[in-house]
Amino acid sequence: MKQAFIILMLVVVMAGQTHAAPAVQRLTLKEAIGTALENNHLIRAAGHHADAARQGVAIAESYYYPSLTFEEALTASNAPTQAFMMKLDEARFTQNDFLTNNLNHPSASHDFRTALTVNQPLYRPSIAPTRELAARESEKQDLGVEAARQDTAFQVFRRYLEVQKAVAQLKAADQAIGDARENLRLAGVRRDAGVGLLSDELRARTHLSTVEQRLISARNDLELAKLHLADVVGLKSGQELDIAESAPAFAPILTSEDLAAVARENRKELQQYRAELGKSEAALKLARSAYLPEVDAFASYQMNARDVPLGSDNDAWAAGVSLKWQLFDGFRRYRDRDRAGAERSATAEQLEQANRDIALQVQESRLRREEMGKRLEVARNALRDAEETVRLLTRRFENSLATMVELLDAQNALNQVRSNLAESEANDALAGGRVYYAAGTFLKEIMK
């Protein structure tokens, strides 16, 4: 009974641990990218910046509307002019207030003033360029959201490939372990048969220890790759992630010239530079508008009371139109205009250089794609040759026609080739994706 109870408790504990272990999410590449587009903090931050920029457009447009101001003020004074005006506004002025002594030395008076004022801009040349400036900034921030989506999608693709490569490297390390154990077994069999050397067995055991160390590193690399992928996807801390498929290998069909044309239309960085150029032109218009006059219309209604706020011992209104034209400001407007012109020229130069850089990136990415395709083909041929070499040397070693050193050298070469193949497969897929990333269409292509 005691043993049965112990076994039952162990089963319960193991079941509880199994239940507590977090489930591993196996995501396809599209699912991983879709999750990242929803959860990635950089995309969310870019979205908030875009929202703020849209509010900036609304703020600029608000200057077209009238402003309405309510004011309640309490004033107390015995200054002759202040006391005189307060009594006059309250309609409490009497004949005695004209006495010389009362005019020069009035008693303290106080006044509650209630005012409602409306101001309507009629002509302000700065409003239109200010709105255009805000609209261009909003456009730039919206493009920033799309750029963040593109960058995040490509980062997920790259991290997905890192996991895929780490899985292949781990598989290669497992194969190396199996081969090393077989070599150790052959060395033991030959030594037991009296035709082998103890040194061969020791070399084989040392080789096994070496590949076991590589297996430990491969497992750790895979775990780290999964953590990096989970981070860019935006999973919560503690959630585990694994890949559910191999990432596709892109095969771009467009020429470098066509890809460059696509990049000029789709790269968000170029579009942001164009928006920045629009901002510079709007800033130049704004600087020039400072030379023009401003015309406003205004109207106000006020009530004055001596004893209570919001009272009405007397009321009055005023309305009119004002023109304001600054004639000289110490050459500040002149300098602002020159500065805006210089900024516009600088932005135009940056846009031109960005066009050149992106055209070069497209050409480079296509050349790298061709290079990685050829390297992958060479790696596959090298794997076939290395496997055949190990097979032949294994037979020769079994028949005492080859040494353990020769066999282990060939085995090390095979292990390296397997690792190179895993690297080449991942790099080939990454290079294909980088072509579309350089063209600015990666997200569109990967989510087809």
Automatic annotation (TrEMBL):
<dbReference type="GO" id="GO:0009279">
    <property type="term" value="C:cell outer membrane"/>
</dbReference>
<comment type="similarity">
    <text>Belongs to the outer membrane factor (OMF) (TC 1.B.17) family.</text>
</comment>
<keyword id="KW-0732">Signal</keyword>
<dbReference type="InterPro" id="IPR003423">
    <property type="entry name" value="OMP_efflux"/>
</dbReference>
<keyword id="KW-1134">Transmembrane beta strand</keyword>
<keyword id="KW-0812">Transmembrane</keyword>
<feature type="coiled-coil region">
    <location>
        <begin position="256"/>
        <end position="290"/>
    </location>
</feature>
<keyword id="KW-0813">Transport</keyword>
<keyword id="KW-0998">Cell outer membrane</keyword>
<feature type="signal peptide">
    <location>
        <begin position="1"/>
        <end position="20"/>
    </location>
</feature>
<keyword id="KW-0175">Coiled coil</keyword>
<keyword id="KW-0472">Membrane</keyword>
<dbReference type="GO" id="GO:0015562">
    <property type="term" value="F:efflux transmembrane transporter activity"/>
</dbReference>
<dbReference type="Pfam" id="PF02321">
    <property type="entry name" value="OEP"/>
</dbReference>
<protein>
    <submittedName>
        <fullName>TolC family protein</fullName>
    </submittedName>
</protein>
<dbReference type="InterPro" id="IPR051906">
    <property type="entry name" value="TolC-like"/>
</dbReference>
<dbReference type="GO" id="GO:0015288">
    <property type="term" value="F:porin activity"/>
</dbReference>
<feature type="coiled-coil region">
    <location>
        <begin position="337"/>
        <end position="427"/>
    </location>
</feature>
<dbReference type="GO" id="GO:1990281">
    <property type="term" value="C:efflux pump complex"/>
</dbReference>
